[in-house]
Amino acid sequence: MTAPLDTLLPIETPEGVDVALRPAGPVPRGVALGIDTMLQTALSAVFVPLLVLGEGGAGLMLVGFFLVQWFMPVAFEVLWEGQTPGKKAVGLRVVTEDGRPLGLGASAIRNLLRVADLLPGGYALGLVSMTLDTSFRRIGDLAAGTLVVHTAGEGAGGRLPEATPTPPPPGLRADEQRVLVDLARRSTHLGEARCAELARTLDPLVSDGQAVDIARVRGWARWLVGAG
Amino acid sequence: MKAQRFEASRGPDWDALESDLNDSGGSAGFPARLRRVARDLALARHRAYGVGLVDRLNDLSLRAHARLHVRPPGRLADAADELLLRFPSAVRREWALVLLAAALFWGPMWIVAAAVERSPDLALSIVDPDTLGMFEEMYDPETIATLHDRGFGGDLGMFGYYIWNNVGIAFRCFASGAAFAAPAAVIVVWNGLYMGAIEGHLAQAGMADQLGTFTASHGAFELSGIVLAAAAGLRLGVTLAAPGRRSRATALREAAARVRPMLWGAAVLLTMAAGIEAFWSSSPWIPPAAKHAMGAACWLLMAVWLVDGSRRAR
Fold first, then answer.
1. Which pLDDT tens digit goes with each residue over B210-254?
2. Contact present, B14 and B57 (Cβ < 8 Å)
3. Residues of B in contact with A178 (CB under 8 A)
4. pTM of the model
5. Do β-strands A18-21 and A92-96 pair in parallel, antiparallel, or remain unpaired?
6. B256 contacts in A (CB within 8 Å)?
């Protein structure tokens, strides 16, 4: 595989081929964390009615709080192939650095060490670690040897805009193809002038003398990705 | 070969792998199919067949790879090994940090306890007056005499509280150690200061015996649990600050794997301590001598556990 232009992380499998993991950045992970935190609060609330049983019930409630607070994410990650409900909703998965499902030990470490990532407040240390690391690992991930990746098919950055598939210039390398497709995807969020500006940088790719515009790029991208 | 022809000839195999993945059982031909799809991925990439096709094969290979190389579920024997062999040898390997954590905990505790006995007002600069009053009431001989009114429900209530609070402190202590060690040290020192102030205050109020009798039984497991969790956390922080000739990520991962048994050991110790503290230490009808004997037995048990375990692990 040629050196990736993006954050794709190639891992070599025993089958003798590189497959690429797509590490996920702070924003989708933050959303997943928000969902999980709400779920944790809701699950903790389930134990509150135990209070009617008196002091013993209060004790059981606190044990319930303890388990939900420290082990709910661990239980989901171990039993649900690396996905908590929040991660599943956002399309994320925790895997080991070689792309396999993670075990109890790794999951416990990464979730306990969230406490360190939260320090000194507002996830500061975790964000610094994610910013410094090429695959967005927070301290808990570094210690556990895990990664949070986008699940299959998602995470490539949204849907392609509609266009008639047209054959792209011949002889494009894999990374060049990917740039074209990414540009077509992003073009829905970009202004018209910026789209035109970016498309013009692709002029050297074509030999027919016509300037490249974003409509052409979208057509090529459709062709490259295939109907679907 | 054109992409369409490649897709037409190989597509059925990809669909079969996909249905294997969706069907949790999988089929006998699964590993061979994964190998063929992985080869297709390499071919598709080499021939630059278009990112759509390459992405699909990549995702398919990745999912199949994860499914094929799934970790077998842990067995009970592994858990026993972790606690009986790897936990003691991890404590032995990290003896220097265990000593440091113990000193950070018991040092301030003893110093403050002695200082408070001399000048009682000092306790107020560490513990607020209401809490001190609460502890005074708790160890008042009259309160202790009425404790049997608490019953099983009350015991269970305290058990839950000890789990939630004490094991939580141990986990926080361990985890915050990863942030360059200092936060774990602060937590340990603070807990030492706090307990020392209460100890000194109660001693100067003439309740040292009640306190000693109450804490004798569970002290061994509870205090060592906190100290061991802190030592494990300090290891993470020290490694992150000074990784030696390795990358920080590698060094941290190795250190975490090494001290993980200590974390489990500390959690087990604190859970046992919570049980003893809630159901035994507070029982008014168990004579003080039995509680002290229990405490001695716990220290002995832990010494045998750690010393013998680390010897057998070698």
1. 888 888 889 899 999 999 999 999 999 999 999 999 999 999 999
2. yes
3. 51
4. 0.83
5. unpaired
6. 109, 113, 143-144
